[in-house]
Amino acid sequence: MSVAAAPSVVRPAAGLRGALELPGDKSIAHRALIIGALSGGPSSVTVRAPGGDVRSTAAGLRTLGVAVDEEAEGALIHYMIAGRPSRDATVDCGNSGTTMRLLAGALAGLPLRVTLDGDDSLRSRPMEALASLLRATGVEVTTSDGHAPITVVGRARLSPTAHQLPVASAQLLGAGMLAGLAASGETSVSSPGPTRDHTERLLAAAGVRVRREGAVTTVQGPARPAPLQVVVPGDESSAAPWLVAAALHADAEVTMTDVGLNPTRTSLLDALRRAGADVEMAVREVRSGEPVGDIRARGGGRLVPVTIAGTDAAALIDELPLLGVLMAATGGELRDAAQLRVKESDRIAAMVAGLDAIGASVEELPDGWRVTPGSPRDASIVTHGDHRVAIAFAIAALTGVAASVQLDDPECVAISYPTFWSDLAELAT
After folding, report:
1. Where in 343-403 does DSSP place strands (E)?
2. In contact, 401 and 356? CB cutoff 8 Å
3. Which are the catalytic amino acids?
4. What angle do CA 130, 147, 322 make, to 5 degrees?
5. Residue 313's pLDDT band (boundaries 50, 70, 90)?
6. Model pLDDT for residues 93-115, shown as the tens digit of each residue
7. Which residues contact 394 (CB under 8 A, 6 or more apart)?
8. Where are the alpha helices (DSSP H) in 236-386?
9. What is the pLDDT of residue 3?
10. Would you say 261 and 31 are in contact if contact means Cβ atoms under 8 Å apart?
């Protein structure tokens, strides 16, 4: 796998042209690894260029006694999984909230005592909603004042329950579904807004009785997933930087092949179309319940301001920093996104500071921001080690929304997108 070094300064490109194969979708990869382990195997999960978060899940399963072997074939990593979690342990989840929350749900139905911990950023994120969800099933869960480290003392049989999530979260929903596998009866989780449905699709592919009806997802337990063979498609979140970049650049045509096109993940395409961008997608096949195909974006169109609020904000949660950069060029407003304050960084504060630094006029709101275009400036950006912030401001510079950008931690993009700088170099002309 070729990984280019991060540039010391990112500057505008004359054009953006080419085709990319993206890193594997980490949302799917996390779940496929964990469900494969719960099956006992043999399962296989093939992922292109897995980032640090996915590697945290694979390493965590090994710590728990699961055999997770891997073979490299160029950028492709083939994970071979055998055995179920079988050890009391302390698991290092690194920077990955998905690893922590999904493993907690999976471990709830196993008679193990496991402590899940992580880096300083992960320790700062709220975990009490997860703990409350699992306690309702009869599991003993302790946290550190509502944060990690979190200790789960699992049980072989759990109580079927109906959960109402306090926020729309695919990670919490997934944890509830995985715990529900060990319950005798139906476990249901109701969400106040839209969430990704990767957990449901993979469980269904593994033979588990699971359904989503409106805002409620239900799983029938007790159930043990069948072994899976999953080839993970490209990550829609890794497509997002290039979709926004192409929309903003006067001379751009970018194609991304073999990308996951799950309809719970395509809200960015809708938002960009509302802004006037030329973007399209085509589904080519369905793998492990997931639609897969190609995305293409062209630049040079006339863009208009956008407002993101309500359920759109929840559906676009990972892409909101990139949409902040779009707003710096077109104007716009973000509301109803207070959840951004408890991600890898306070993304509202980080984006407002960065947008101001690159020359936009920006007002920080409790749950978002309001942006008016300004004159592009050279800027030094504090990323707070947050991959989404770093990627967003690299795109700002690449497209001329910023005159140039120097990132304090450009390597942090590897958490989700280890080939980002290589792909940027490939597209920039």
Report:
1. 361-365, 368-372, 378-381
2. no
3. 318
4. 80
5. very high
6. 999 999 999 999 999 999 999 99
7. 10, 241, 405, 407, 410, 413, 420, 424
8. 236-248, 267-274, 311-315, 320-330, 347-357
9. 67
10. no
CA angle 280, 283, 287 (to 5 degrees): 145
Q: pTM for the full model?
A: 0.92
Average model confidence (pLDDT) across the chain:
96
Q: How many CB atoms lie within 10 A of CB 72?
A: 9
Hey, which residues does 10 pair with through a beta bridge?
405
In 3-state terms the chain splits into helix, strand, coil percentages (rounded to 5) of: 35, 30, 35
Whole-angstrom Cα distance, residue 228 to residue 210? 16
Looking at residues 232-250, what average pLDDT do you find? 97
Residue ranges and CATH numbers for the domains of the chain are 16-24+233-427 (3.65.10.10), 26-231 (3.65.10.10)
Confidence of residue 8 (pLDDT cuts 50, 70, 90): confident
- Torsion 60-61-64-67 (CA) sign: negative
At a CB cut-off of 8 Å and minimum separation 6, what does 145 contact? none
| Residue among 183, 159, 162, 184 nearest 173 (CA) | 162
Continuous segment of H or E residues that includes residue 94: none
Cβ atoms 186, 177 nearer than 8 A: no
Per-residue pLDDT at 5:
82
> Per residue in 179-203, pLDDT tens?
999 999 999 999 998 899 999 999 9
∠ CA 96-101-106, rounded to 5°: 125
Mean pLDDT over 288-295 rounds to 97
Q: Distance (Å, rounded) from C-alpha 92 to C-alpha 239?
A: 28
